[in-house]
Design a protein that fits this description.
By secondary structure, this protein is α+β, with helices and mostly antiparallel strands. Strand 8 and strand 9 form a beta hairpin. The protein binds ligand MTE.
Length: 314
């Protein structure tokens, strides 16, 4: 496994998680009396992480591109809208509920969840359905770790995810401006959800997630098109039947449930054979590369699909 090569702050500048957690608890205690809410102290944005498996060997996309070229329709349709319009979004306090067909349903406070899970840094290749790609150092934990604690019942076949609805802080959800049906929803088959590559990300580049990238917790499934990576998740539900997904609901001919990266199956309106590499060699021209089956993660995930026809199951 290659080690990462992106710049990291000197060790002395990384706040040990125990230190910022106790600061956070102190402040939470102080804030509780006043406003009844948990306020993250200024500067407590660095995550203590350890290197995880699955380190891509490609150069990471510069942080400024990762945080300024986004899809997050709750904030608007333009790639710059999420960065420009999400500053007022309050990602804390936040609860994430795990419910449905599980032995132990639970509502997690996001910071308690972060404290309970070892946070790994994993450098993943990401491929958007719009034929561009990035390489992102995510910080998070396997979704499987969270699901294991909840103990899915044997009747559970799928995992359904739901994003937050908060029009007061998300201009794209306001009446007259809305583009999608809210909440944004996504789903995975249980075996996809339990795969060790499937991550719940709470940070990137060693810092807690910027609002525009899906704060405080979002899904990352690197062998699928980016739209499966649902942001700002509030609810995870184990279910028996295949759940609806936002883009499939909007346009089923163009966006399937599986959405596995597949250079051989074109989008009805454009080719998926190659991708524009964001942040490399100029924005519009420059670097392109061939798209790989399962975004290059075939060795890890192809077995999930056996002999399934990946042309009809797109
Ligand atoms: N999640 C929500 N809630 N709303 C969205 O509009 N867009 C998706 C996905 N998750 C989206 C979302 C799409 S189309 C992509 S490509 C990725 O988020 C982009 O993630 P990034 O901006 O962090 O690169």
């Amino acid at each position: 496994m290659a080690q990462w090569s992106y710049p990291r702050p000197p060790a002395g500048e990384i706040t040990p998680r125990s230190a910022w957690l106790s600061r956070r608890r102190l402040l939470a205690g102080a804030a509780m009396g006043v406003a009844g809410s948990l306020v993250a102290p200024a500067g407590a944005t660095t995550l203590q992480t350890r290197p995880g498996p699955f380190q891509a060997t490609e150069k990471p996309t510069p942080l400024s591109d990762v945080t300024h070229y986004n899809n997050f329709y709750e904030f608007g349709l333009d790639k710059g809208d999420p960065a420009a319009l999400s500053a007022g979004f309050a990602a804390r306090p936040w609860t994430l509920s795990v419910e449905g067909l599980v032995a132990h349903p639970r509502v997690w406070d996001i910071d308690q969840l972060i404290a309970a899970m070892p946070i790994e840094e994993r450098l993943y290749r990401m491929r958007c359905v719009e034929a561009w790609s990035m390489v992102i150092p995510w910080d998070g934990f396997p979704l499987a770790s969270l699901l294991a604690q909840a103990e899915p019942l044997s009747s559970a076949r799928y995992v359904a995810f739901e994003s937050i609805v908060r029009p007061a802080q998300m201009p794209g959800q306001r009446a007259g401006l809305d583009s999608l049906e809210w909440p944004y929803v996504e789903g995975l088959r249980l075996d996809e959800a339990m795969h060790p590559l499937t991550l719940l990300a709470v940070g990137l580049y060693g810092e807690i997630l910027p609002n525009q990238n899906g704060a405080p917790v979002r899904l990352v499934v690197p062998w699928k098109y980016g739209f499966k990576g649902i942001k700002s998740i509030t609810r995870i539900r184990l279910v028996e039947k295949r759940p609806p997904t936002t883009w499939n609901r909007m346009n089923a001919d163009e966006y399937g449930f599986f959405a596995n990266v597949n250079p051989e199956v074109d989008h009805p309106r454009w080719s998926q054979a190659s991708e524009r590499v964001i942040g490399a060699g100029g924005f519009f021209g420059g670097a392109r590369r061939k798209t790989q089956m399962f975004n290059g993660y075939g060795e890890q995930v192809a077995a999930l699909y056996g002999t399934m026809n990946l042309r009809s199951n797109y």
